[in-house]
Amino acid sequence: MAAAPEAAKPRSPMIWVQGLLCGGLVAWMPAIATLTAILLAPGLIAYFVDRSPTRAVGRSVLLFGAVLAPQSLLTLWHAGNSMAASLGMAADMRRVSAIWSLQAGGWLLAELTPVLVRLVLDGKAFARRTQLQRRRAQLEEEWTLPPRGDGADQPMAPP
Known about the structure:
159 residues
């Protein structure tokens, strides 16, 4: 028996507006759209491949790529906004590799940050546990309590 089809999630009308604006940009300024697509290609790929609800990795990669992309787009604007200038700038490997390297750094940062935060939190928890164990040992000695493990620290069974 086939499962009932899930109800389609209603999409925001903003997606249509974004599509319209993107199409308008490509039709109005194809040179800028081409250069932007080439420079931000890793970020766009990461954004569309990222399946998390927030798309945090894709947004991080795009943000890092947006650091140097506006300078290239401004240079293209002052060079006459022609397709020849756009493709010439896209063929400049120093420019493209710098922006793509920044985007790789954004991806690396987005992937490693949770791991590093987890390591720091685990280290802090371990240090606190060690501190509490030392304090407990001091209190056991000070109050002349029997050492742990002999059942003295277990709750009494009901009668």
